Amino acid sequence: MNIKEFRISKLLNSKSGKSVVIPIDHGLVMGNITGLSNPIETLKKLIELKIDATLMSPGLAKITLELFASKDAPARILTMDIPLMSTIPGETGEVIGHETISTVEFAIKYGFDSVKVLLPWGEKENVQMESIRVVSRLATECDKWQLPLMVEPVLWGNAVPKEKKKDPTLIEHAARMALELGADILKIPYTGNQQEFKDLINSLRVPIFILGGPKMNEVIDTLKVAEESVRAGAKGVVFGRNVWQNSQMEMIIKSLQMIVHDDMDANEVIKSQIK
Fold it and tell me: Residue 79's domain is classified under what CATH number?
């Protein structure tokens, strides 16, 4: 086992070898977003619920270090970049610029186990190249320090038609290109077909985590995505808004843990958890 593999192992639950990751980095782009208006209190609750890892910004990392002093505290992944979507705080739109906001040195100094960067596709040509440069430079720097790089390819840009935002073929292309740029871990959407997703995971040969994306209508939809993707071979889920924007956050996390770590069926889990 090399150092990168050792650090990746710290992201995974020792029981199952998989992970329930709950990110709290959304304020970087969305400002004071619903569900994270008090991110430190939310983080304390997530730690109490024994999540396996979280994704956070440099600013939150500096003021929450003591919360991770325990040996059984969640692993941490540092968000390294910001895709600027508006010059007005809290508003979103088309990506108008993409830059790193931290360094690998900061991640090492604060004891992070991995770092994460976005790779938005379908943007204007100059922004698209900015994103490619951000990812490639971080991949080189992470190799130097043996720090795992999680890349999140997303089909956000206006050049991708609305009806193709969830297109499995485009997701596969984006994942493959992120791998080629140097990703050690991929955070991607579930494509919707368990066998096809299993084939994709087998072809990529790096740990795959499933992103949650926008809030889903029903809890069972969130749990079904977790169940099918993990059974296809995903190493875990990275669900944010579908967890802490729901009044039943504790129930959802416990349900995800039962699915990811105990290989339980989503329908059985939801019956046992909903009162």
Answer: 3.20.20.70
